[in-house]
Amino acid sequence: MFSIIDWMSYSSIGVVILLIILFVVAIIFLKYxxxxxxxxxxxxxxxxxxxxxxWFRKVDGTVIVINRINAVKAGLDISTDILEAxxxxxxxxTRVVRSVIAANKAGINLTVHRAMAIDLAGRDVLDAVHxxxxxxxxxxxxxxxxxxxxxxxxxxxxxxxxxxxxxVRTNLDRLVGGATEETIxxxxxxxxxxxxxxxxxxxxxxxxxxSISKKVLEKGLDAGSAFEILSIDIADVDVGENIGxxxxxxxxxxxxxxxxxxxxxxxxxARAQEQEMKAKxQEMKAKxxxxxxxxxxxxSYAFREGKLGIMDYYxxxxxxxxxxxxxxxxxxxxxxxx
Length: 338
What we know:
It is a single chain. The chain has helices at 2-41, 48-56, 61-73, 80-88, 93-105, 112-120, 125-133, 181-198, 202-207, 210-218, 243-305, 310-330; strands at residues 136-140, 150-153, 158-170, 227-242. The protein is α+β, with helices and mostly antiparallel strands. Among the domains are: 29-133, no CATH class; 136-242, Tetrahydropterin Synthase, Chain A (2-Layer Sandwich). Strands 1, 2, 3 and 4 form a four-stranded antiparallel beta sheet that branches. Strand 2 (150-153) and strand 3 (158-170) form a beta hairpin. The longest helix is centred in the C-terminal third of the chain and has 63 residues, at 243-305.
């Protein structure tokens, strides 16, 4: 009797466990059954365990399954492990798969690993494939920067303004780590400025604007960039200002200011010297007055010592009066005031 009761209790426990298992399996099939069946019927089978594992790894199973189906239908066998790894790394699985499919259809050698590397590097891999198939045209200079022309000066001093259109194709092998569009624009602009600057006169540039694009293309400006330059077309060439004449005029004005400054310096020095000479003159006059003040003392001393007689003194006064008269006669007459 005791063994029968134990068997019934064990049977009840087994039934409960079986019901729990069936309930869990039912939930799994309700949640992932449609995806599993869709992948199976599409020839891109994904196991239920893989789908459950995706749920535990917090991976969107729908994204993985749909993109695996798309890849298989396009003739590419991309495993769910690779797609999951890229999803967990923060990449865009849909964009990667679409870019690999597009490259494969266009005959471009792009592996899924390289596409994932490009995507994780922050580049739009799908746009890169499209640009590789359909070349892209870049305006030089970039109109978004506010500058509409590339300005350069020929050897004759005349300014030439040019616009260029650069046709590029993405180089997928150099996309990771390669220079961007801004570098291409800068290099082409530099090449145009150099070419115009080496021209003897602006007429040569106007007569053959295609020479600019030829010389710029010869420089290999796409080296180290993510693009391959297919062509450089000069869209417009205009004549600007006479920079040479303007610079000469500015130089002449600057030279004039320098000369004026030097003249003012010399004039100031002359005025300072004149004032110095006036000061020396006043100093000499003061010495003369001081010396003349000593004469009466000397005459008085001579009288006391008996070295000067009265007749000698009168003769000296007469000579002095005669000298004063001669000086007054020699001076020109002054005009009366009023």
